[in-house]
UniProtKB/TrEMBL annotation:
This is Cytosine-purine permease. GO terms for cellular component: plasma membrane. The chain crosses the membrane at residues 126-144, 164-191, 203-223, 229-248, 260-284, 304-328, 401-424, 430-449, 469-490, 510-529. It comes from Kwoniella dendrophila CBS 6074. It is found in: Membrane. Belongs to the purine-cytosine permease (2.A.39) family.
Length: 536
């Protein structure tokens, strides 16, 4: 090859095959036409060859490749092949525990504890019983769903297609997106309030919300590895912070069972059932994103150790922090400064407990970071559910979806910044209703119809094939039967069903319990018939 030919070759952007043909052809082969592309020798050598057109599009593609090359996760809901997963070691389980612990070792869990006495009028014994029992029960589906991630290599809402059907999964994916956007709005409000208090009220709620949202966006933009690093960092810090908060309030927590607390609260069927619905919605909705964070583990990952890592990482923080929140709210009925702070908001209550000085302001900054540890992985999963709900978004890189999700929930958080209590009560209670339609098929399919769970019983090659996935008759029929029962068992300020009205005080919320039972009873036989006659 002459020097002139070599110079021409370096000015072309060719595929590896085309380049070889050009080199082998010598003078006998016609010269290839001149193009406007450049040839990236380093990219070819490392197997990351890309074609970059000139102009803004080429610049954008080059920028996206640079992001991926520097560690930004690009993969969306496409199943993860075995060769792209991590090696299983003893330490592989630690991030799974700390991720879920960081998810819930924060001020939102504290707020969930506060609403037991504040909104449902329950005393400490009743609040504690609800918190422990409903949280322990609600954590089981979440941990089980997480263990199916390594077995299938698929994200949670993609797995749902194999039981719900392609199109019903789109609907549930959209509902799941709405759920997570609502949760992120609530957490952003709390973060904004914390930063406002940390600045001695020189910073508005809105500015604090925006700052917290931007930090969470950056972390979710990078991907799962960044989320694990953040959880490993924030989890131990928040343990220290909550221990310190418990120490500061410890001398006054006995007031949670004082006379003033008992006069302000009590035990009612409607209160227990209503708070139970709120706690179920607070915990069990994680089952719709559980395996999003476990697909990086190899398929031979033992189910039991992973189950307990996720289960205890999820339930222990929720139980401990919500119990502390309930106790502090009950004690506030005997402490005027705490009571006045609690009426403003949960961050104000914590600020008052911490002493309202410089140390308290530092504590509020740490609480804001704890909120970010919850929001960042939620943004990550919301983007994945969005790809299931709107399939053409699969063509959009995962990290860009983080921008879209943030652009949606941020205005909602700003709009609802001054009505947090009401928003949390209404939102967390309603969450449990749709999960009554989602959870039974999600558990029955892998445990009954596709057991044992593997890439054979969940064939990866049909993950996006409408004609080979279930039609969805079982999920549709069970939902049609379950929705009227859920409506009859609901007890909200805007709707009380006829079953709820028949409970002792006339407003007992049993919608989730009854709805889940009906959906289970209907789904089992109908799904059996669907598989028998359609072969899907």
């Amino acid at each position: 090859m002459t020097v002139q030919q070599q110079t021409e070759l370096e000015g072309l952007e060719l595929s590896d095959r085309s380049k070889d043909q050009y080199q082998q052809g010598g003078q006998d082969k016609p010269q290839l036409p001149q193009t406007d592309y450049g040839y990236d020798e380093e990219a070819v050598a490392t197997g990351r060859y890309r074609h970059y057109p000139q102009g803004p599009l080429g610049l954008a593609k080059r920028g996206m490749d640079v992001l991926v090359e520097h560690g930004v996760e690009e993969r969306g809901i496409e199943p993860r092949p075995e060769e792209d997963r991590d090696t299983l070691t003893f330490w592989s389980y630690l991030p799974q525990t700390t991720l879920w612990a960081a998810f819930n070792f924060n001020i939102l869990s504290f707020s969930e504890g506060v609403i037991g006495p504040a909104l449902f009028g329950l005393n400490f014994k009743a609040s504690a019983a609800c918190i422990i029992l409903f949280t322990l029960a609600s954590g089981i589906p979440v941990a089980y769903c997480a263990t199916n991630g390594p077995k299938t290599g698929m994200r949670q809402m993609v797995q749902a297609r194999y039981g719900l059907g392609y199109f019903p999964a789109m609907i549930f994916g959209l509902i799941n997106c709405a759920t997570m956007i609502g949760f992120m709005s609530l957490t952003a409000i709390l973060a904004g309030q914390c930063l406002s208090l940390a600045s001695n009220s020189t910073m508005s709620y809105n500015v604090g919300i925006v700052i917290a949202a931007l930090i969470a966006l950056i972390l979710s933009f990078v991907g799962l590895r960044a989320l694990h690093i953040v959880s490993l960092t924030t989890f131990p810090i928040m343990i220290v912070v909550f221990i310190a908060l418990t120490g500061l309030s410890g001398s006054k927590l006995h007031l949670a069972v004082a006379e003033a607390a008992y006069e302000a609260t009590g035990v009612t069927a409607s209160g227990v059932l209503g708070y139970g619905a709120s706690l179920i919605g607070f915990t069990i909705t994680y089952s719709a994103l559980a395996s999003d964070f476990t697909t990086s583990l190899p398929a031979h990952t033992p189910r039991l150790p992973l189950f307990f890592c996720v289960y205890f990482g999820l339930t222990i923080p929720i139980i401990t922090i919500t119990l502390l929140g309930a106790a502090c709210q009950l004690a506030s009925y005997s402490i005027e400064s705490w009571a006045s702070a609690s009426e403003i908001g949960v961050p104000n209550l914590i600020f008052a407990i911490s002493g309202s000085g410089g140390g308290a302001r530092f504590v509020m900054v740490l609480f804001c970071l704890s909120v970010v540890a919850n929001t960042a992985p939620t943004i990550y999963s919301a983007g994945l559910s969005g790809q299931v709900a709107i399939p053409f978004l699969v063509k959009v890189p995962r990290y860009f979806l983080a921008l879209i999700v943030t652009a949606i929930y941020l205005p909602i958080a700003i709009a609802g910044a001054h009505s947090f209590y009401v928003a949390l009560e209404n939102f967390s209670a309603v969450l449990s209703y749709w999960t009554a339609l989602y959870i039974p098929p999600t558990l029955i399919e892998p445990m009954v119809f596709r057991n044992p769970v593997s890439r054979k019983t969940y064939p990866v090659e049909i993950w996006n094939k409408i004609g080979k996935l279930p039609i969805g008759l079982a999920s549709i029929i069970s939902a049609i039967c379950g929705i009227p029962i859920i409506a009859a068992g609901m007890s909200q300020s805007w709707w009380v069903g006829w079953i709820a009205r028949r409970i002792a005080s006339g407003s007992g919320d049993v919608a989730f319990e009854l709805g889940a039972v009906v959906v289970t009873i209907v789904y089992l036989p109908v799904r059996y018939l669907e598989r028998k006659y359609t072969g899907r």
